[in-house]
Amino acid sequence: MALAGLRVIEMGQLIAGPFCGKTLGDFGADVVKIEPPGSGDPLRNWRLLQDGTSVWWQVQSRNKRSLALDLRASEGQDIARRLIAEADVLIENFRPGTLEAWGLGPDALHALNPGLVILRISGYGQTGPYRDLPGFGAIGEAMGGLRHLTAEPGRVPVRVGVSIGDTLAALHGALGILVALYHRKVHGGPGQVIDVALHEAVFNVMESLIPEYSAFGVVREPAGSALPGIAPSNAYPCTDGWVLVAGNGDSIFKRLMDAIGRPDLGQAPDLASNAGRVARVDEIDAAIAAWSREHSVQQVLDALAAARVPAGKVYTARDIAEDPHYRARDMLLSQTTRDGHTLEVPGIVPKLSGTPGAVRGSAPRLGDDTNAILAEAGLTADQIDLLRRKGVVQ
User: Fold this and answer.
1) Annotated catalytic residue, options 166, 195, 285, 369
2) Is 78 a catalytic residue?
3) Which DSSP helix (H) or strand (E) runs through 231?
4) Per-residue pLDDT tens for 237-255?
């Protein structure tokens, strides 16, 4: 696998740090997850539980090994140093200053391991006037500009439904790690610190938000399901649900209008380009909706597929689980938990032709791998037993 032989120490918890670790683990990295003894990562108990463990945990922590280690204890910090000394990557998403308080700040760790790549994910970054404020993904979505747009005009901003701020930060972190590792390998550079702020990861995908404000003083406002400035692209009602239609290409628009029985709109000179369609978007949306609401979702999809117009239904979990395309592309994998349950879980993204990712191991129970990891670090059985009696490891 592409990342086989890469040793990653994951100190993060919940979503942002662990999702980054999962991404690296899916492609072969040896990810050692350090969790506090007793409770472990809080994600173990989030949302729906099976035999006392979250099924979300089974996805987020696959391909990892669990070391239950108290990082607040000096003995625990010493063990962390031993592990980090032999690692390629450290992932953490604590509040800024936490590692430094434990004597595990970047300067100390680079003195121990000059090639170490350190990913630090936090609410507001390691610098700046807000660095010490607590921040979760939802707050990053708000500050990054996303939450203002996820609403219908005049209504309360809503979540996109998942912890997108955390996940975007994790993916930016994974990219940063790979860039730093490439620099280390190809250019002989030292290890680096990667500073990812949750709100900056969100802000980085906000498209033309700031350039439009800079050039025109325009503040982009919520637009519900529409795509402002690009037409037609919206959600349209059917007899049994909703369909998303993206008819905003010039030739696509003409085919769409023919499909809905409105060739007059398709041939209108002022609608031949996007600017003209934006000016008459309400009229165009009304015409598409008048047609779609007379048909079922499947009828609309069939008609638009025949016309080569991009369209799609709004999928639920059931729709995904029953969809043949998901299965054909191995996006639904069967995974056996360490408690013996069989779960369907998301597949591996992205898909590499030569070194594809894989689920090599199910998510660990708390401390499942403590003995093995400490033995690899050179501790004897007696030393491990003493640490266990002190409550430093579990």
Assistant:
1) 166
2) no
3) none
4) 999 999 999 999 999 999 9
